[in-house]
Amino acid sequence: MKFSILGARVIDPVSGLDQVTDIHLAAGKILALGAAPADFSPTETIDAAGLIAAPGLVDLNVSLREPGYSRKGNIASETRAAAAGGVTSLCCPPRTKPVLDTSAVAELILDRAREAGHSKVFPIGALSKGLEGEQLAELIALRDAGCVAFTNGMVNFRSNRTLCRALEYAATFDLTVIFNSQDHDLAEGGLAHDGPTAAFLGLPGIPETAETVALARDLLLVEQSGVRAHFTQLTSARGVALIAQAQARGLPVTADVALYQLILTDEALTGFSSLYHVQPPLRTRADRDALRDAVKSGVVQAISSHHQPHERDAKLAPFGATEPGISSVELLLPLAMTLVEDGLLDLPTLLSRLSSGPAEALRLPAGRLIAGSPADVVLFDPAASTVAGEKWLSKGENCPFLGHCLPSAVKYTFVDGRVSYNG
Amino acid sequence: MTPLDAKRPLQLNHQGQLQHFLSLDGLPRELLTEILDTADSFLEVGARAVKKVPLLRGKTVCNVFFENSTRTRTTFELAAQRLSADVITLNVSTSSTSKGETLFDTLRNLEAMAADMFVVRHGDSGAAHFIAEHVSPQVAIINGGDGRHAHPTQGMLDMLTIRRHKGNFENLSVAIVGDILHSRVARSNMIALKALGCPDIRVVAPKTLLPVGVEQYGVKVYTDLTEGLKDVDVVIMLRLQRERMSGGLLPSEGEFYRLFGLTTARLAGAKPDAIVMHPGPINRGVEIESAVADGPHSVILNQVTYGIAVRMAVLSMAMSGQTAQRQFEQEIAQ
């Protein structure tokens, strides 16, 4: 299929391109911007007047739940949901059953993703076997099977010495390690940010220091080992301040936040709705504002959905007995557009944090809208709106934004030059 | 963006009457006073030779206790019986299956037996809210204690105790002493005292046993018991669980008693007519000296008696509010 997308406002955040022009797609690539080559005849022409064309979104954390948790979601359902949210490339974390610590699991995920044919999938491998934090996983075998980075998730290593060696080993081969910094001891038993809201509700708290203590240690170990590092799912003002300090002294670390952390605060827990049960927890207004500032300034390069679909029963219990997580990848673009609507970010900056920022953090072949790059494009209508949940593709309905009217609507998501979603 | 299911008065019906009793948070002073007045009238019933009134005749009250309890469970049973209800009590162990499933399925089953009211005690904060919202909205839910969050009938019986001994709340100094952090009783008491207009609410505890931001309840924090008790009218002691000694919250029971235990000598700093309360069961020699617990200032056993009357008040009010709501909804449907 060859496409000509005519008259869209084309934004490529990296080059600073922001103009009304045409895009031509052929053979899975962006053939040209502006005038088409003389011999080009598109199979389909899309009149995109009034629409915005941007690089397809890159989401660094989407739990696909396969293999092992098919009651919550599967590769086909969740990549399809992602495409509906404008996502063309996504990374899936290694918390599967079995854990993504062997190349067989990576290959299974990649095969099923290819078969499904929606968003492209880049698996993140387990840093330690079984995510148990004791023995290194076979990182090179995993890399060769397609893993783009490695993480131990929120599971702490049993000892700092083992962690340190894992980082040195990863550094040897220039692998990227993703840190989900949270000190297990300080967070133990906690359900919500350790602040007035949790205290009032009688929910055991997770102090901010659970993040900052682990983050400070991880940054020092990154500095010493020289490993390529990305910090994911930051939640606190002091946490982003630590990242900013490290960057200021020249440490090339990158970071992301969950989109819902830029919107919600721990005050949402009043009423005990388990839809707001997330890990790490929602924090205060001041924390949320600091996260927004960090996204704006570029200390945080990436906004991710941290999509965690669940079956109904997982949320149908008293708060503390429910499983944490929000299903929201299919709202990634419209939900993120609330930040532009509220005047917190300009559109090119937002699109950069959703595409080139995350792509560069993990060195993914994505995030650009220029001739020669993969034909991963999202085409959306900024004047339209999306009623969240009006149609719903994810298997997980655990989304607190259902029913909200969100700005903009995804019209087309192209993945490698194919129409992956048409809204 | 405001969450869609933001705070709403789940426990009130369309006329602002109780239809569940989940927490004292958000209840207006008039409603709390109405509970106390109703309880006062039931205290007279308790003093009569025939102690029953027919307010809940034909209704079925299920006590579902996921946590152990003697006093609360028994007084709820007595309260329901004195209102002429049929009473079933279940002690549900949480050890075998996952808590959520047990809770959900147990209550659905009880609902199928045409229960009209559940009295629930559960170890998870928010359990009563969850049941009222997602499991059995057609059944009146009474919170018999949920995690660290709330124990509203205990809160109201404490208020009844104070009102009967002190008359009103407007000029009182009340000190709540001990493990505030883990205490649902303390949380309910702080909310009730504030709502009823008590001008001087104090909490006395070491920092390890105080919740973050406890000042939000409108209380003053003391870390010294002598200062905290100075000239108070009411002392509410809290139970200290043995397991608090692990994990660094406290060094030992002995050291806690030395610093925060209520002794005759310490009580001497309070007003001469001060009353001493405790939700029970008491740990003699850990948070309170026997001479104080059994002494002239103690109203600990009166609290138990008042507990029955308060629970009768809450059960009858919630049942009538729930019935009114059902009728209202039927009329709307027609």
TrEMBL record, chain A:
Sorted UniProt keywords: Hydrolase, Pyrimidine biosynthesis
InterPro entries given in the database record: DHOase, DHOase/Allantoinase_Hydrolase, DHOase_cat, Metal-dep_hydrolase_composite, Metal_Hydrolase
Gene Ontology cellular component annotations, sorted alphabetically: cytoplasm
Protein's GO biological process: purine nucleobase catabolic process; pyrimidine nucleotide biosynthetic process
Top-level EC class as recorded in UniProt: hydrolase
CDD domains per record: DHOase_IIa
Leader peptide range in chain numbering: none
SUPFAM superfamilies: Composite domain of metallo-dependent hydrolases (SSF51338), Metallo-dependent hydrolases (SSF51556)
Molecular-function GO term, any one: dihydroorotase activity
Domain Dihydroorotase catalytic, first and last residues per copy: 53-234
Keyword field contains Isomerase: no
The EC number(s) this enzyme carries: 3.5.2.3
Protein name: Dihydroorotase
Species annotation: Pseudomonas graminis
Automatic annotation (TrEMBL), chain B:
BP GO annotations: 'de novo' pyrimidine nucleobase biosynthetic process; 'de novo' UMP biosynthetic process; amino acid metabolic process
Domain Aspartate/ornithine carbamoyltransferase carbamoyl-P binding: 19-163
Record's catalysed reaction(s): carbamoyl phosphate + L-aspartate = N-carbamoyl-L-aspartate + phosphate + H(+)
Residue stretches making up the Aspartate/ornithine carbamoyltransferase Asp/Orn-binding domain: 171-317
Enzyme class: transferase
A GO cellular-component term linked to this record: cytosol
EC number per UniProt: 2.1.3.2
Pathways per UniProt: Pyrimidine metabolism; UMP biosynthesis via de novo pathway; (S)-dihydroorotate from bicarbonate: step 2/3
InterPro entries linked to this entry: Asp/Orn_carbamoyltranf_P-bd, Asp/Orn_carbamoylTrfase, Asp/Orn_carbamoylTrfase_sf, Asp_carbamoyltransf, Asp_carbamoyltransf_Asp/Orn-bd
Family: Belongs to the aspartate/ornithine carbamoyltransferase superfamily. ATCase family.
Full protein name: Aspartate carbamoyltransferase
Originating species: Pseudomonas graminis
